[in-house]
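2024-03-11 09:14:02 INFO worker-7 job=invfold-0412 stage=load source=structure_tokens
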């Protein structure tokens, strides 16, 4: 196993132990699938992938597992409302470019965005725990169409 995958596994085991989430083969598989995903998948997409190895798993189990992963901080939910929840396994500080046509979310890193200042007005409204810049547009795959 490569180093990064090993670290990820360790983080998973540690977090589950810390938060008292029992590690089951199902949860492990769901975590593996999500970790591999680069497309900020919906619960439904993860369900379809997991079902290939665990044909009797229910959508409900997958959905509830993903939510408990977000509650204990193993994965993040992609911001936005009104759409289906999207899950993000990338735990490094990063930003999003979202295509408004195909709804693909691309990760990117940018130091200037990481250092962006929180406006005073927002500081009064609450405590900021996550700063992410979301750019929206039309991706190059869709532009040609
Ligand atoms: Zn697109
Ligand atoms: Zn992301």
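2024-03-11 09:14:09 INFO worker-7 stage=emit residues=145
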């Amino acid at each position: 196993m490569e180093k990064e995958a090993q670290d990820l596994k360790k983080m998973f085991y540690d977090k589950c132990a810390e938060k008292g989430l029992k590690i089951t083969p199902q949860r492990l598989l769901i975590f593996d699938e999500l970790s591999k995903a680069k497309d900020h998948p919906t619960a439904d997409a993860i369900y379809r992938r997991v079902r290939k190895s665990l044909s009797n798993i229910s959508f409900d189990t997958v959905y509830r597992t993903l939510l408990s992963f977000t509650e204990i901080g193993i994965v993040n939910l992609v911001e936005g409302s009104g759409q289906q929840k999207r899950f993000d396994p990338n735990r490094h500080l990063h930003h999003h470019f979202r295509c408004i046509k195909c709804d693909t979310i691309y990760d990117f890193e940018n130091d200037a965005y990481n250092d962006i200042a929180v406006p005073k007005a927002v500081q009064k409204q609450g405590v900021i725990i996550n700063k992410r810049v979301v750019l929206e547009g039309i991706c190059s795959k869709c532009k040609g169409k």
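2024-03-11 09:14:09 INFO worker-7 stage=report msg="Residues 99, 101-102, 104, 139, 141-142 surround zinc ion (ligand 1) (CB under 6 Å)."
2024-03-11 09:14:10 INFO worker-7 job finished
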